[in-house]
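pipeline/complex-builder :: batch 7 item 3
reading input block
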Amino acid sequence: MDAESLDQYKDYVAVKLDALTPIFAKAAVGNFSSNIEIPDTDDKFTELYMGIQIMLEVIRGQTEELQTLNKSLEERVHAQTHALEKQNNLLQTILKSIGDAIVVTNTEGVPTMMNRAAERVLGESIIPSQIDHETYGIFHSDIITPFPPSELPTFRAAHGEAMNDVELFIKNKNIPYGMFMSVTGRPLYDEMGKLFGGVAVFRDISVHKQLEEELNKYTKELEEKVKERTGELEQYLEVLHREEAKEKALLESIGDGVIAIDQDGNILYINQATEQMLGLHSDLVVGKSFAEVVPAENEKGEPVLLTDRPFHIAAAANKSVSRNYYYVRHDGRKIPVAVTASPILLNGRVMGLVNTFRDITNDLEIDRAKNELVSLASHQLRTPPAGIKWYAGMLLSEDVGPLNKEQRAYLEEIAFNNERMIDVVNAMLNISRLELGTFNIDIKPTDLTNVIEGVLGELTLQIAAKRLVVVKEYALDMPLVGTDPVLIRMVFQNLLFNAVKYTPAGGRIAVTCGMLGPEVHLSVSDTGCGIPKEDQGKIFTKLFRASNAKRIDSAGTGLGLYIVKRIIVELGGDVRFASQENEGTTFFITLPLVHAVPPARTRGEHTRALV
Amino acid sequence: MDETSIKKRILIVEDDTSLLRGLIDKFTREGFAVLSASNGIEGFSSAMLNHPDVILLDVVMAEMDGLTMLEKLRAADEWGKKVPVVFLTNLSPDSDAIMSRITKDAPAFYLVKSDFLLSDVVTKVRECLAVK
C-alpha cells in the first residue's frame, strides 16, 4: 500500500473508531442504550460494528432482565417484609394484650421488651438499676419478705436458668393493693446458641390465690367438721366398745360354758368358762371342728355319735336340744355336763349354733347325796315298824302263847297303828323322792292295760269282798306309751285302791284306757262317796282328807292324790276329776304318747335311786 | 318223809338284832335249822362253809351289803350259783340295782320287810324250796 492510501486508510480507521467513542463513553457510565449504524460497506469494521451492536443489545437485554428480576425480587422482599411486619405487629399486639406480663431482658437483666400488662403491673419495678428499697415492691408470697433481686426470675432467666411457677407478691404504685404472681422464666439463645437474654412470664394468681385461700378455709372447716364428726364417732365407738366389753364381760362371767359354732361345725368362739372347764385356749381352737376338739361320751364311756350330739340335732331340726353327757378333756378327764344347743337364725336360716353347757358334777354329787339320804331315811324309818309288825304278828298268831280277848284286842291296835305308820312312811318316802327329784323317770314303752290289770289283780280280794262290779274299757289298738311304768303303776294303785275303798258294797268301778288324737286318755270312776264341793279345791294337796273320806277310813294318809298329781305332772300329763257327793267320782288323766323328759330328770345308771 | 325228817337249813343274814331275833325265832319254830350272820362277810363265809338250802338276805348292811354278797356267792362255785336267795329289805321295790340283781342272779326273790308278816316270809321261803 502507498503512503497516500495508507493516510486514507488511517483517516478511514479514525473515522470508524470515532464513531464508537460516544458509545464507549456512555457505556463507561453504565448507559448501554446506544445503537450503532451498521454501514453497508463490507469490511472488518462492519463486523466490528455488528459485534458491538450485538453486544450492546445483549447487555441491554441482560440489563432489562436483571432489572425485571430485581424488581420482582424487590417486590418479593417487600411482600415478605410486609408479612413479617404484619406478623410482628400481630405478635406485638398479642404480647401487648396478653393478660400475663411478659418481660424480655438482656443479659444484665434490663428489660428490652415489656408487654402492656408488664408495663402496667411491673412498671419500672423490675429494672435492676431502679431497684431500691422504696420502690421495690416484690416480695415472697408471705407478703413480707422482700424477694432478693438476684433471685428474680427475670435475672435468673437472663443468666441461663429455666424455672417454673415461682410465686411472688408484687405491690407498687401501679397495684397498691398488691398482687400474687406466678412467674415462669426461660433463657433466650440466638441462632448461634449464644445467650442473649431471658423471658419471664408473670401470671396473676390473685384469684387463684384467693381460691386457694378459700379452699384452705373450706378445707379447714371441713377438717374441723370431720374432727367433730370423728369425735362423735369415736364417742359412739367408745360406747359400742363399752357395750361390747360389757357383753363380753357378761359372756365371760357366765359360769356356764358358751361355745359358738358355725354351720360347718367349726368353733367360732369359746368363753372363759369354757376355757377353764375344758382346759382349752381360745386361740388354739377357733376354726377347728367342735366335735373333734370336744369329744363326748355317755355314762358307759362310749363315744357319742356326731348325729346324736345336741348341736348337730339342733342344726338339723332347727330347735333347741338338751342332753346330758360327759365332755372329755385333752388330759383325759371327763366332766359330766348338761348341754343345750340352740340354732342361731338369720332370716330363717341356720347360720350357726350356740352351745351352752354346765358342769353338773356338783349336781350329780347332790343327787347322789340326796339319794343316799332318802335311802338312809327309808331304811331307818322302816326298820322299827317292820320289827313291830313281825313281833305283833307272832304274838297275834299265838306263836309264843295264847292270848285272852283283851290282849288280842290291844295287840291288834298296836298292829293297826303300826300299819298306819308304815303307810305314812311309804307315802312320805315317795313324796320325798318326787320332791327331791331323786325319782328317776325311766321312760319305757309301756303297756298301760297290763299295768291296770296288774293293779286290779292286787285288789281282787277286796273287790270280791265288797261285791264290786269292775268295768274295763280298753282301746283295742292301744299303742305302747312312752312313760315310766313304775310311776304309772303307783298312780293306778292310788286311784284304784281309793275307788275300792270309798265305794260301798255292790258299787261299780270303771277303768278306761284309750287314745284321743296324740294323747293318751285314762279314767278311773266309781260310785262311791264322792268328794264334797267345799273339799274339791284341796283334794290334791298334801295330807288333805275330805270330810267324808275320814269317816270311811280314818287311817288314810291324805297323801295318795298328792302323789298321783305329782307323778302325772312329772310325766308330762294332766289330771282332773269330776265328783258328786254320794254319787261317785271320776278321775281323768291325759298323757303324751311319748314323754320327752328334761335332761335334769334323767341320769345314768350309777345314780339310780337306791331307796 | 325225807322233806320233814331232814330239817331244811336256812341262813339268815340281817344286821338289825331285833329283826334278826324275830326271824330266828320264827323260823326255828317253823322247823328250820337256822344259821345266822349279821353282815355280808360273815354271811358269805357261813354260806360257803355250811351250804344252807336257802338264804334270807338283808340288803342294807355295813361291811358288805346283800347285793355284793349275792354277787360273790354266784361267782363262787356251782352251789353258789344255784342256792335260792330271798332279799328281805326296807328299800322300795322299784330300785333298778336290786331288780337287775334279781334277774341276773336268779334264783332270787324280794320282800319288803314292812309289807309282810313273818308268816308271809316263811311262806315265801317254803315256795322257793318247793320249786327247788
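note: Residues 2-131 of chain B form a domain with the Rossmann fold fold (CATH 3.40.50.2300).
queue -> next item
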